[in-house]
Here is the input.
Amino acid sequence: MNSALTWDHPHPHILSISVQAQHIDLMQHTNNVVYLQWVSDVAWDHSHQLGLGPDDYAALGHGLVVRQHELHYLAATRLGERLLLATWITHVDKLSLHRHYQFIREGDGLTVFRGTTHYVCVDIVQGKVRRMPGAFFDTYSAAALPPAEVPSD
Here is the structure.
């Protein structure tokens, strides 16, 4: 991995992928909805690495659902290019979690995408916003960037 890459925040969680034929649209670049899937993929990969996956969510009866996405497409990506998908947890409170994303094209180090997601915790059965179980709050808070490392929006 290129050590000279410029990440928006320190200590990113990184998922490496290659742009595949099924990602390409009529314009011969990665379709915009694919980026949204990659946002989900890297967030789940990070959550798994922290020890929380779908089975843990089901056992706890709670999950995190998207309240809002903000997606910024900065440059096209094309078939065969390798991308580094990075995410950081930037804020956690008793009801919600915020993630930032940055995708870099490995070949030239260009940032091709940035985004944020605001998740809220819900009771899976009732579908209502609820306080995070302790396992969520403790795990995600421990992984969150210190406030000094997160620029205010």
